Structure prediction request, 137 residues.
Amino acid sequence: MQQVEEQQLGQRVAMSETETTVILEKIHRMVRDGTMGQDYTIANREKNRRLKRDYNVDDTKIREVLLDLQADNFIKAEKSDNLEHPEDIVYIFKKTILLMPKWQEKADYSNVRLYIKITWPVENAMMFVISFHEDNI
Prediction:
């Protein structure tokens, strides 16, 4: 494998509207037709677990949000900053949704802005949702 210089990691990748549409179609197809755990998975990271702990978010809700991603939720594409996967491209989305907080007696739905980062490692057909959590935490 070609060695990638560290300054290239995390570098922005230009995407046209057509390319963004293709990526969204791929995400939607993978989630709609695939099975969580086999065709796509959510990374077991603290920020991702915290969203499930703090709000009524389960795998069904995550699936619903991924299927509802649109072009206006797309923020950018960039080279992976993971030294083990320097050739991968990550796709970053932000989406505001209504969620019900857990553990609050008089809770009401609140707008929560989500940060969603998705990739397909070059050597693997499985889609990885690296980040699915509140934005800016």
